Amino acid sequence: MGFSVVGGKWLAEKNKMKASVAGTRLWKWLAVKSQKNKIKFIQKAIDKLNKALECIAEDEKKYLEQADIELKLANQYEKHASPILERKKLFELHAKECAVWRPAVVADLVVLEKQKKKEMDALHNGDFTTHMSFLFY
After folding, report:
1. What is residue 129's DSSP assignment?
2. What pLDDT was estimated at residue 25?
3. What is the CA radius of gyration of the chain?
4. Tell me, what's the pLDDT at 110?
5. Cα(23)–Cα(65) distance, rounded to whole angstroms?
6. Are 35 and 122 within 8 A, CB to CB?
7. Using an 8 Å Cβ cutoff, are 11 and 115 in contact?
């Protein structure tokens, strides 16, 4: 009987250790999964900002080309130059508005790239302690 009690205690301790290790593995798995999902989310945001930069550049180019066309038309039709030049100014204004957006988007891209690098480093180093709070959102 004494042997079975000791064996029972030993078995209970062994099961506690298994549960503790399994719990640790579960938290690590959840942390890694959360980290990978966060990196994917950041990458999607980076992709969208890059697409926005492309659209801004295309729009700016389109407006500047249209302003150039309007200038040529104004030179060609000197009698009707004033409304054509007004349209040219509008196209130039739209191009300037596009140019104003570019630095803000680039700044956001820089921040996201730094965040992605930080998350990648944490994932490679196994540093999940600072990122565990994201599991509960």
Report:
1. G
2. 64
3. 31
4. 93
5. 63
6. yes
7. no
> Helix axis angle, 2-76 relative to 81-125, nearest 10°?
160
**Does the pLDDT of residue 75 top 80, yes or no?**
yes
Residue found under tokens 């565990």: 132
Task: Identify each DSSP E strand in the chain by its residue range.
Answer: none
What is the rounded distance in angstroms from the CA atom of residue 39 to the CA atom of residue 36?
5
Query: Measured on CA atoms in the order 35, 37, 38, 42, is the torsion positive or negative?
Result: positive
* 64 secondary structure, DSSP code: H
Question: Tell me, what amino acid is at 76?
Answer: Q
Sequence-ordered list of residues with C-beta below 8 angstroms from that of 75, at least 6 positions apart, any chain: 81
Task: Please answer whether residues 108 and 49 qualify as being in contact, where contact means their C-beta atoms are separated by less than 8 angstroms.
Answer: yes
Return d(Cα 128, Cα 30) in angstroms, integer.
10
At 4-43, the pLDDT tens digits run 444 555 555 555 555 555 556 665 666 666 777 888 888 9
